[in-house]
From TrEMBL, chain A:
This is Iron-sulfur cluster-binding protein. Residues 323-390 form the 4Fe-4S ferredoxin-type domain. Residues 1-20 are annotated as: Disordered. It comes from Actinocatenispora rupis. Gene3D superfamilies: Alpha-helical ferredoxin, NagB/RpiA/CoA transferase-like. GO terms for molecular function: 4 iron, 4 sulfur cluster binding; metal ion binding. Keywords: 4Fe-4S, Electron transport, Iron, Iron-sulfur, Metal-binding, Repeat, Transport.
From TrEMBL, chain B:
Transmembrane segments: none annotated. Coiled coil: none annotated. This is Fe-S oxidoreductase. GO terms for molecular function: oxidoreductase activity. Residues 241-260 are annotated as: Disordered. GO terms for cellular component: cytosol. Pfam families: CCG. Residues 4-83, 132-216 form the Cysteine-rich domain.
Amino acid sequence: MTERRMLPLLPHGSGHLAPPQAFPRRAKVAVGDTQLRANIRRATHTIRDKRAHVVDEVDDWEELREAGRALKERVARHLPELLERFEQAATAAGATVHWARDAAEANRIVTELVRATGSDEVVKVKSMVTQEIELNDALERAGITAYETDLAELIVQLDRGEQSHILVPAIHYNRTEIREIFRREMPDTDDALTSDPAVLAEAARRHLRRKFLSTKVAVSGANFAVADTGTLVVLESEGNGRMCLTLPETLISVVGIEKIVPTFADLEVFLQLLPRSSTAERMNPYTSTWTGVREGDGPQDVHIVLLDNGRSATLADTVGRQALACIRCSACLNVCPVYERTGGIAYGSVYPGPIGAIISPQLTGVERNKSLPYASSLCGACYDVCPVKINIPEVLVHLRQTGVDGARERPSAERTAMRTLAWVMSDQRRYENALRAARTATGPIAGLLAGKRTPPGGPAGTLGHLPWPLSAWTVSRDAPLPARQSFRDWWRKTHGEAR
Amino acid sequence: MRIGLFVTCVNDLMYPGTGQAVVTILERLGHTVEFPAAQTCCGQMHANSGYRAEALPLVRRFVDVFEGYEAVVAPSGSCVAMVRDSYPRLAEGDAALSARVAELAPRVYELSELLVDVLGVTELGAVFPHRVTYHTTCHGLRMLRLGDRPERLLRNVSGIDLVELPAADECCGFGGTFAVKNPDVSTAMLADKVRHVLDTDAEVLAAADNSCLAHISGGLGRLRTGVRSVHYAEILAATDGTLPPRTEPAPAAPTATPTD
């Protein structure tokens, strides 16, 4: 805490990172969408089970996780030096490195680079960071059309929808819905198009092939950026990324500054952790690496935009910075009981799920994203599957605290209640008086509220209805009433006065 | 062994039968249980809701009250996890308190840890001829790594028909203030937990945390399923095959209680 206050104020990020309404309101809508619930439940359970299976195969999985965590921690401690080393190596290899403080700056750089080529369209490799900065919208405003080439991103783009998952942004659609989108939005489909996944993939392949062959500029992100060599790395399953990374003349990669790994050898750890955690594959089908420009082979004009957008501010928080270790695998989304019921759009950020609930508020600042740290029951399933051991529950609680501390001066009913309760709990006499009051008061209160202490047909000693704010409990649950005799009164009666 | 009982505030007020069961079990095994009356609450709700400053006096209080004991036992996975996992973090910045927390926390046990690991018993002479299913509450499962300790104890209960709960390791949706801050998601999670419980045809649902059970049994009760929820300690304490009657609520003042 003290360390944080001593650091200069660092700018927060902007972009698709904060919900327009609080999470509970958006979640209420999502929970009521029966088709969404079925789609997400099926998809998350399938991939969850597959991941568990392929992770079980690896004898030294826990050691790998620890290695991944330690590497990322080292990167966090040495980020400035590593970034400069990366810039030097990439520049020496023929790439041009740009630095962007925030979304607006990154969008401006990319737009100008595309304009300079004279092209009015780009093909895109699936990338979280360009969705974070809403690059497609910025390009569109400049008259440049961006074509998503990842199948799931393409589906979302064709439907003008929102991403709901880090790895599979179209996870909330089922194949029938995808068929309808293709039929509606792809000019070269007809009624022969079925909802068979192979048929849908073939339709997308034909649709995209023309773009790959004709488009002169590609935009990508990167999974890793190797400081020693200036190499960028992209992992994917479809091969469409490989097309974009090799065929165009100009390649522009937007890379969050936390993607750095120190050496090429460090990839050994992450190339084992990432595929098994994300797609539940032993190895992903396509791993592309490129280092600047190679004459006569691939894009001859290579740009790298290193993006901050709130990452330095996150790094300044010694607890919260764990979130920067994320390798975007989505394992935490797939096991999260909250995500399973709401899907990703409820989070209102391109980063949904448990990891999103700790990344988004840190990039934007907690005050702009108050509800996401509370979008978790703190069950801990996310921490167990995280391949780099990010203690997500710890950071969630830490961010709740940051939000509470930041609002100290504003009056709040919750704070008053918490303070009062802590005051009561800090003294034996006050505590015992409160126990007694709770027991004697709930009887009449219950009588007044419910007409009956026990709801008709309900179990003894429960209440069916409570007033606001406790009505949030009784909306679906009967509420227990205090016992006739507290434990401590029983103890005094049976064992005498406690010491 | 001189064992200090941290009954937890929820049990003190709402579920005294669980504390009584712990006392019964440990005294039956020949141990001395003490209940320091100065104990109140571990501060979990404050800390997990972001109120660190409010939680800190409760951390100090817990350490003051319990540091003299050889072992401290609590019938709650999440309160023990609070002490062992969160207290060191909350005490950061106060070297003296940190040292006292580091010294005490490893001796604070959830009931099944005390029985299985410290006292080395899994057979308690309990009799409970009923169909029971067991929900592994999250903090016990993932923060304390209780593993199958509670089920090992339950399996040795005479007459018990212990059936596996499908997806037992999935959160029930309670999550402390989560249950009221996100009631829709919490309820959606509860619905699946209730479905799994009903799928087992169990008469009784057992778990290591009465707070999670208040949530699940609140749903089971609302739907009039007839399934009873109980802390597993109460099953381990049963020697005549029955549970004590469901804890009676405090009597209502006569003037305010309508007659049926």
